[in-house]
Amino acid sequence: MQRSKKSRMITIQFNGQSKQIDDDYTIDELLISAGVPAKFCAVELNLEIVPKHEYRLQKLKNGDAIEVVTLVGGG
């Protein structure tokens, strides 16, 4: 994903691991960069579930904690 402005880096917790990202990342962009399909996951931001329709709007901030759970099918 190409950025038009120079971004600074922030640090978040992503599934318990420290991760540096651009300061203008959204949840949607984080999922794309991690290879996680938004259709098959649930996202918790700072202990609150984020509705899927907010993934493109919710900007991440320094220190945010994101937990992503993916759905797995089976039988």
Estimate percent helicity: 10-25%
> How many DSSP-defined strands?
5
Strand content: 25-35%
Provide the CATH architecture: Roll
Can you write the helix and strand succession as a string?
EEHEEE
How far apart are the termini?
37 Å
- Return the domain count: 1
CATH topology (fold) name: Ubiquitin-like (UB roll)
Largest sheet: 5 strands, mixed
- The dominant shape is globular
As a whole number of angstroms, the C-alpha radius of gyration is 13 Å
Low-confidence regions: none
Q: Trace the largest sheet across and list its strands.
A: 2-1-5-3-4
The overall average pLDDT, rounded, is 90
Give the structural class.
Answer: mainly beta
Which CATH class applies here?
Answer: Alpha Beta
Characteristic key phrases:
75 residues, globular, single chain, 1 helix, Ubiquitin-like (UB roll), 11% helix, mainly beta
Element layout with pairings:
Blueprint lengths: L8 E6 L2 E6 L4 H8 L6 E5 L2 E3 L14 E6 L5
Parallel strand pairs: 1-5
Antiparallel strand pairs: 1-2, 3-4, 3-5
In words, what does this structure look like?
This protein is mainly beta and 75 residues long. Helices cover 11% and strands 35% of the residues. The protein contains 1 helix and 5 strands; from the N terminus they run ββαβββ. A 5-stranded mixed β-sheet has the order 2-1-5-3-4, with no helix packed on it. A hairpin with a 2-residue loop joins strand 3 (41-45) and strand 4. The longest helix has 8 residues, at 27-34. It is globular and about 45 Å long. The model has no long low-confidence stretch (mean pLDDT 90).
